[in-house]
Specification:
About 40% of the residues lie in helices and about 15% in strands. The protein has three helices and three strands, in the order βααββα. The protein has helices at about 15-30, 40-50, 70-75, and strands at about 5, 55-60, 65-70. It has a three-stranded antiparallel beta sheet with strand order 1-2-3.
């Protein structure tokens, strides 16, 4: 089994998904002090849209037992592709 698995957003409780997306916004350095009044809420809504368009991935690291939002480029840097759920045979 590989180290990382993709977690479908629909499988997460809403509060967990929101916390993951907020952590991603913070980690990526998004400006949450915008003048539209949306702030963090606006970024979370945008990221949910990106998740629905498969532009972002939620990945669980089995080794570190951590779950994070990643861009496709980050996901692919781990040698994975979207919906790459086949076992890799490293037992």
């Amino acid at each position: 089994m590989g180290r990382f698995i993709e977690v479908p957003a629909r499988m997460l409780p809403e509060e967990t998904l929101k916390a993951l997306l907020e952590a991603f916004v913070t980690r990526q350095g998004y400006d949450t002090t915008d003048t539209t009044g949306e702030g963090m809420h606006g970024w979370v809504a945008e990221l949910k849209t990106q998740l629905s368009r498969n532009e972002l991935i939620i990945a669980h690291d089995l080794e570190l037992e951590m779950t994070e939002v990643m861009t496709l480029a980050q996901w692919r840097s781990f040698g994975r592709d979207v919906a790459d759920d086949e076992e890799e045979g490293d037992y």
